[in-house]
Design a protein that fits this description.
It comes from Candidatus Thiodiazotropha taylori. The protein contains five helices and eight strands, in the order E-E-E-H-E-H-E-H-E-H-E-E-H. The protein is of the alpha/beta class and 163 residues long. Helix 2 links the parallel strand 4 and strand 5. It is globular, with a radius of gyration of 19 Å.
Length: 163
């Protein structure tokens, strides 16, 4: 614990070996009185299954970073149901060669009722989680730091100053 926030490493278990390096990713759960966050790293189905076999209820979180960037090798239906988040963040690159997040994965999280954000479109995503705040809103870098030619204020890019 630190300042009322609890940190718990859920995975990997001490004596469990996975051949696939992604499945050895650290899975961290962060909890406060008001919010829970799950950071599953690059885990794939085998690690998700291992977590589900121990205690599916411990996975329940308000906010999750999608495992393995939204690869179809992760975010199984059972895992998505167990996590049941309000928000899912996809950490992907713009036009990445892997095509992440995969549409099937996006559909699974949407069907669960989560709101989705993707760094490929928004840039950095910031949540300020304050005590007692029920519905925090994300701050998206690309919305907060637009260039003058990207502003939607009705002015033309040719109108740079007073005439």
């Amino acid at each position: 614990s630190w300042d009322g926030v609890h940190f718990q490493i859920l995975h990997p278990a001490a004596r469990v070996e996975f051949q696939e390096p992604n499945n050895r990713s650290c899975v961290l759960k962060i909890e406060s009185d008001d919010w829970t966050i799950l950071l599953p790293g690059d885990i794939e189905q085998a690690a998700e299954d291992a977590l589900l076999s121990v205690n599916p209820r411990q996975l329940r979180s308000d906010l999750v970073v999608a495992p393995h960037h939204g690869s179809n090798s992760s975010s199984t239906a059972e895992f998505v149901t167990a996590v049941d988040p309000q928000w899912v963040l996809f950490s992907t690159g713009y036009k990445n060669s892997y095509g992440f997040p995969k549409s099937e994965v996006v559909q699974r999280w949407q069907a669960q009722g989560a709101r989705l954000l993707n760094t490929a479109q928004s840039g950095a995503i910031e949540f300020r989680l304050r005590s007692g705040e029920v519905k925090p809103q994300p701050r998206l870098y690309r919305e907060l730091n637009q260039r003058f030619w990207q502003l939607d204020d009705g002015a033309s890019a040719n109108q740079l100053g007073p005439e």
